[in-house]
Amino acid sequence: MGNPLILNGYGIKITVDNGRLVIKNGNRSSEEKPESYYLQPNQKKITSILIYGQTGYISLEAFKWISLQNIQLNIFNWDGSLLSSVNQEKENNGKRKIAQYKAYIDEKRRFSIAQSLIKAKLGNSIKVLEFLPYPGIESDVISPSLRAIDKAKDIPELMGIEGDSAKLYWKEFMKAIPEKWGFVERSGREASDYTNAMLNYGYALLEAECLRVINTVGLDPCIGFLHEMRNEKRSLAYDLQEIFRGEIDVVVYKLLSKGYRVPKSDFLRMNNYSLRLREGGTDKLNKAYETRMNERIEYEGKLIPRRKVVERKGFELAEYVEGRRKDINFLY
């Protein structure tokens, strides 16, 4: 399993010279010389490039090199959201996509997939609350919502159940976050507190992971089953992301609670009072994310990395829409 290469700062440059990919990291201070990296064709050490920089350029030849070497290129906005993800499609399976479209049109099958997605999200949310070592946390507050999923009649009702359970979840989760981080609610983009800023960036990493899996299995990222289709929206990536959001929550909890491994100096307050992560913060979060996703957990009687579980769920979804799997279960 390869590692990500994280690029920050001003003046990032990615070109090709003599068959090698030449990467110059951005300038972050006048006292520090930017690092340079040289990647040979068929190397396995770097499997993704994450750009969190301000300025720079990538040559067309570099884009071609990255695509041919199956390296995922992710570009993030200042607020931690994923702007673009360039993936080399590994399975150009037209029949599989047609099966996906048919499953989307079939209200019964679409609802079945959406129902399983919400069940997995709520089930994993309970696991996260049970994991948090705080005596006042009530992990069973979500259980009624989990039971209500089986009685739901349509996707809007499912989304309502998910929304209500999310409010309960965050109310319990924030009990484990030290008061110094000012976490009082889940706010989404343009976060004004440290916890939400880290959650946003972590979810963007997970979104990129899900996009990689979707391209690997040959599904259409724009056709989701829980989230509606909209312009510039990767609905299926958001669907798959719901299952694994708890992994990001655990990563952020550990970074903010275990000896305060992320200082406030790793954040930058913007003119609109929102927060963004500086280079030190993105580095720490990326490393913690990779550690978490490469940890081995038991799945179907075998110990495999969490990252592989994401792939397995992607393939299981593909098999279900093709009719090669009778049932779909996203729990793990």
UniProtKB/TrEMBL annotation:
Pfam families, sorted: Cas_Cas1
Coiled-coil stretches noted in the UniProt entry, renumbered to this chain: none
GO MF terms held by the record: DNA binding; endonuclease activity; hydrolase activity; metal ion binding
Highest rank taxon of the organism: Archaea
GO biological process: defense response to virus; maintenance of CRISPR repeat elements
Cofactors (names): Mg(2+); Mn(2+)
Catalytic class of the enzyme: hydrolase
KW Membrane (keyword) present: no
Keywords, sorted A to Z: Antiviral defense, DNA-binding, Endonuclease, Hydrolase, Magnesium, Manganese, Metal-binding, Nuclease
Binding-site residues for Mn(2+), renumbered to this chain: E162, H227, E242
Subunit-structure text: Homodimer, forms a heterotetramer with a Cas2 homodimer.
Protein family: Belongs to the CRISPR-associated endonuclease Cas1 family.
Protein name per its UniProtKB record: CRISPR-associated endonuclease Cas1
Organism listed in the record: Methanosarcina mazei
The encoding gene: cas1
